[in-house]
């Protein structure tokens, strides 16, 4: 059984705005899926559709086999959600908040206490656990939301910009936690972000969305093949013979685009045999950011 | 699922008791209606028993409603005919304080979405919110009644030398009318709260629920409608039926999408 499936999923709001347009994709268990796109692209709407907060205008979706539009409570019992609009209670302490949500999820008091302690420690909130939420900083609130979403050991985790407002160290901590959960516990992660570099660090599969339309989806290698095959080879060399395909981009710096890695030895051999001295050779593959911009530019050109 | 609902009810109670502003609001109305107002009546009767209007009124009273002395008869009349209607304001006001902020309060604090992501249906959340406000309203009403009886008995005993006996009206009020009125108020206010965009808007709508009571109070004072036990039982039965219907039907059409708007 797939962890998450979307089939021609569309959502048009009552005002007429089409926020999600015919999205189809499926995710295996334990996958860390990066749902990437600019603000207003339709990421949050998709998360809401997957949690039954919104009813699709067309198509359908399922989470762990349950249709969220039909059985939202079943989906909620199996999933955890972190979004910027899902806050907790200021008049309760961090620990009280976690215990409250654990009891709503049906976790018994002893288990919830133990689980809350572990999560607070993992998210560096041990000391803040007994402080009221009203005294928390934005980053602390964000981390506590993460603990809240994990308190009932969900099988699917929906994270909408989980590291926005976090300092680099906390962001790294959260990343480690996400990665471990996916690897060790088989939790499926649906991560919405517009921070492409951050996504590239932890995701195993990606979906790029713009104006409600899924531009492309797949692993990084699949996206590279689809969008920008090959790599840019940068060579730092002296006395490079003339007549090669290399383009000079700076002092002793050359660049060329290759379709496959097999071309690299040939290029190096040509330089050396022509009397050149090579100091370094690096093959730069397109990053997620390069792929994203290539896709969005292509889309604009089509329009 | 009961555990989830209990957890939500407990959390809502805590929200009221830890909020000084709300808690004070919760105490003021019962204090005025069950301690200050009855005391003012008792003292007025005690210090001004020969008012000609009161004399005329007493002549109209049936023999059964008369106590030993003139002061005690008037005090008894106030206790058994006037105060029950004032008393009904308490469940409505108490309910409005907690119920008005039930959904819209969560929305303003950005906690509603978190709650909706939990494995509870909209109906269960609605019922928990209604139950929390209802239990609070009934607790405050009962404590207020006990406090009122204690203060009134104390005052009449020391000022007039005798104790007053609450009539069967009070039993009907406490067991049927007050819970039913409270449930109607809570259900309607929680429903309004689900649609409102701010707590103030929700509270303003709650004020309209007092209007039928004001008419009842006016009726009692002018003598147009003198509540006897049968009228009270009738009102109680109608209110209970209305409360049951509201509770069943009120939240039927609400969806997550409507609540998050």
From TrEMBL, chain A:
Gene3D superfamilies (UniProt xref): P-loop containing nucleotide triphosphate hydrolases
Limits of the ABC transporter domain: 4-236
The UniProt record lists the keyword Transport: yes
SMART domains referenced in this protein's UniProt entry, alphabetically: AAA
Protein name: ABC transporter ATP-binding protein
Gene Ontology MF terms: ATP binding; ATP hydrolysis activity
Domain of life, source organism: Bacteria
Pfam families: ABC_tran
Annotated organism of origin: Lentihominibacter hominis
Record InterPro entries: AAA+_ATPase, ABC_transporter-like_ATP-bd, ABC_transporter_ATP-binding, P-loop_NTPase
Similarity field: Belongs to the ABC transporter superfamily.
Record flagged with keyword ATP-binding: yes
Keyword vocabulary terms for this entry: ATP-binding, Nucleotide-binding, Transport
Automatic annotation (TrEMBL), chain B:
Pfam families, alphabetized: ABC2_membrane_2 (PF12679)
Spans traversing the lipid bilayer: 21-47, 130-150, 170-194, 206-224, 230-247
GO cellular component: membrane
Annotated GO MF terms: ABC-type transporter activity
Keyword annotations: Membrane, Transmembrane, Transmembrane helix
Protein name per Swiss-Prot or TrEMBL: ABC transporter permease subunit
């Amino acid at each position: 059984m797939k962890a998450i499936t979307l089939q021609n999923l569309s959502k048009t709001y009552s005002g007429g705005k089409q926020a999600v347009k015919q999205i189809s994709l499926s995710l295996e268990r334990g996958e860390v899926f990066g749902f990437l796109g600019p603000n207003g692209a339709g990421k949050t709407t998709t998360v809401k559709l997957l949690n039954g907060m919104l009813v699709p205008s067309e198509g359908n979706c399922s989470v762990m086999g349950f249709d969220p539009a039909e059985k939202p409570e079943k989906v909620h019992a199996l999933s955890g959600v972190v979004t910027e609009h899902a806050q907790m209670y200021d008049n309760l302490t961090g620990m009280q908040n976690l215990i409250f949500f654990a009891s709503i999820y049906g976790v018994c008091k002893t288990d919830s206490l133990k689980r809350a302690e572990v999560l607070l420690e993992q998210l560096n909130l041990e000391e803040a656990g007994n402080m009221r939420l009203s005294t928390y900083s934005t980053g602390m609130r964000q981390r506590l939301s993460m603990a809240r979403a994990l308190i009932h050991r969900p099988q699917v985790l929906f994270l909408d910009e989980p590291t926005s407002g976090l300092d680099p160290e906390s962001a790294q901590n959260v990343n480690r936690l996400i990665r471990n959960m996916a690897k060790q516990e088989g939790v499926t992660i649906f991560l919405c972000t517009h921070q492409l570099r951050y996504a590239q660090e932890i995701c195993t599969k990606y979906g790029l969305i713009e104006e409600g339309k899924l531009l492309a989806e797949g692993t990084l290698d699949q996206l590279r093949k689809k969008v920008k095959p090959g790599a840019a080879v940068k060579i730092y060399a002296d006395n490079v013979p003339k007549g090669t395909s290399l383009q000079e981009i700076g002092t002793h710096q050359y660049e060329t685009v290759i379709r496959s890695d097999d071309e690299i030895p040939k290029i190096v051999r040509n330089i050396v045999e022509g009397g050149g001295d090579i100091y370094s050779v690096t093959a730069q593959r397109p990053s997620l950011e390069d792929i994203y911009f290539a896709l969005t530019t292509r889309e604009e050109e089509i329009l | 699922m009961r555990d989830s609902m209990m957890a939500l009810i407990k959390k809502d109670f805590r929200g009221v008791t830890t909020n000084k502003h709300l808690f004070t609001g919760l105490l003021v109305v019962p204090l005025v209606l069950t301690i200050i107002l009855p005391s003012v009546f008792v003292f007025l009767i005690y210090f001004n028993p020969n008012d000609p209007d009161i004399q005329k009124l007493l002549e109209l009273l049936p023999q059964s409603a008369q106590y030993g002395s003139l002061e005690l008869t008037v005090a008894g009349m106030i206790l058994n005919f006037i105060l029950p209607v004032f008393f009904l304001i308490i469940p409505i006001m108490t309910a409005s304080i907690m119920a008005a902020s039930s959904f819209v309060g969560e929305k303003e604090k950005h906690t509603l979405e978190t709650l909706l992501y939990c494995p509870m249906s909209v109906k269960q959340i609605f019922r928990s919110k209604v139950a929390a406000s209802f239990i609070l309203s009934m607790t405050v009403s009962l404590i207020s009644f006990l406090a009122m009886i204690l203060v009134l008995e104390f005052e009449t005993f020391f000022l007039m030398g005798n104790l007053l006996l609450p009539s069967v009206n009070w039993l009907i009020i406490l067991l049927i009318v007050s819970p039913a009125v409270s449930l109607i108020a809570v259900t309607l206010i929680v429903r309004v709260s689900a649609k409102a965009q701010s707590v103030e808007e929700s509270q303003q709508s709650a004020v309209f629920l007092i209007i039928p009571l004001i008419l009842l109070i006016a009726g009692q004072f002018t003598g147009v409608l003198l509540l006897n036990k049968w009228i009270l039982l009738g009102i109680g039965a109608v209110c209970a039926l209305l409360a049951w219907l509201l509770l069943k039907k009120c939240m039927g059409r609400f969806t997550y999408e409507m609540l998050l708007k």
